[in-house]
Amino acid sequence: MGRQLDSEDEKAFLDYLRSGRDEMNLLEHSISSANKNVDRTTRSIEFTQEARDPETRELVTRSWKVSFSAEYGRPVPKDDDVFVALMKVSQAQGLMDKAASVQAVNPQVSFSSRHLIKILGWGDDGRSYQAIDDALNRLCGVRIVATNYWYDNANKLWVDRKFGIIDDVFLYERAKYDRAKRRAVAAGEPHPQSWIRWSDVMLESFQAGYVRKLDIEFYRSLTNPISRKLFRYLGKQFWERSSRTRHEIDLADLCVEKLGYKRGTPIPELERRVAPAIEELERSGVFGLQHRLEKGYGRCRVVFRCNRQSRTKRETAPALGLAQKLVELGIRPADAETAVRRHSPERILEDVEDSAFRERAGMLKKSRAGFLATMLKSDKPFDRPLGFVSSMEKKRLAESAAASRTAKQKVATAKRMEQTARAQKESREFERFLTSLGGDAAVQAFAERAFQVVRPFYRTQCQQRLAAGQTDAAETYRRMAMEQLWKRTAKKSNHSTSNTGS
Q1: Are 19 and 120 found together in one domain?
Q2: Number of folded domains in the chain?
Q3: DSSP reduced 3-state for 237
Q4: Same domain, 131 and 267
Q5: Which among 147, 281, 401, 486 would be 20 to 30 A from 464, CA to CA?
């Protein structure tokens, strides 16, 4: 859905999004996995490191252990989105405004699920409401034991803490919220609100100022969930008050500790998985980000560089990645910014691809830039030309084809398993039959009969193998002949029983 262009409320809401907040302690070790599927097998993760105490300069062991709910599992990237939205709501309600004391601040934050959905740009449907419910279940299940790890910004010390993130949740189910809202409106009362209560440790961190600015408008424009996780982590390294322009980290540490990939994943696989996220951030222009990999024997380090001029520009313009791309294609900067405010990233990218397709096909009567500008000013997408397939549609078709192949593979696997099970059952029944014959002499007599009844091939092969001294091979052909006769006998017996019964 496109946003209304000239709405003052919408402009104010975009400003609201660009002034989000993020808690910095939780950025060091990802509580969420990198997988969109819920992991219920990992009960806890632990990270340790040797470092010098910032005050005493003594070498100390720092450990950070996170445990998860056995029922709800480890948080997923979509739960990070809900956390970001809750941080914004908390900031808007003053939890990060400096108070006389932490005790003077109420850790309870009111919200509606619909407002969180609006912050995140999700569809207003049942799946989004369920995603919020699931996220809160998993976030409430997170417990952290930090030894020499939690940074006490007020006293500038590493301290030991044992805590959760969210202590309590009061959440209206969508249908129940609508009923409660109707009753409140009829009674002239305020609309009902869901709420969460942050843990004391989280509230202390908010009050100590260990938070950073987060541009949620840009955050939600990133299509890859790992890009969003990496954007938050790098934001801590290159945030506006920092003078850093370089950050170097072991690739495995980045992927496992900061982004949530499984420990033990091979380095080449980690490199392959994280590459699209890094590429998306570099294309967007955020931080003026550039990177390189430094590889050695059994190791790989990634070096990020921040161009501070590019970063400043990114933080003062909405969705610069798309806007900058449009400007490069000849769209006026003001029109480009208007487009990213009105339309979804998917709509804009499809318009860009459509205009390129028409230009290649000789379908444009004016410049591509002029035609693209006209497309972007339209509330509804233009009808797509015959033969045009967007990259999003290609991806969908590829995923559909992959799903179809997977389904066929499952059917084939099930068929093979069924055939194997049937063969094993027949083998057991055949063994029982041989046992029932009553001894080696009876079995040999049955074998001789089999050689006479079934194909001569089995007798010939058995005799040739015996002549060559290959007794095991000869026995195989002997058993094959007996099994063929047994199957024929069993079929006739079943057929006779069936006719008698009828």
Answers
A1: yes
A2: 5
A3: helix
A4: no
A5: 486
Owning domain of residue 484: 437-502
Same domain? For 398 and 466 the reply is no
Q: What string of H, E and C letters represents the secondary structure of 154-188?
A: CCCEEEEEEEECEEEEECCCHHHHHHHHHHHHHCC
Is residue 284, in this structure, part of any structural domain at all?
no
How many angstroms separate the CA atoms of 426 and 365, rounded?
74
CB count within 10 Å of CB 42 equals 14
In the chain, the amino acid numbered 231 is F
In a domain, 280, yes or no: no
The CA distance from 125 to 122, in Å, is: 8
Residue 167 in contact with residue 198, Cβ under 8 Å? yes
Query: What CA–CA distance (Å, rounded) separates 386 from 366?
Result: 19
- One domain for residues 322 and 462: no
Does 279 map to a domain? no
Q: How far apart are CA 249 and CA 302, in angstroms?
A: 6
**Global model pTM greater than 0.90:** no
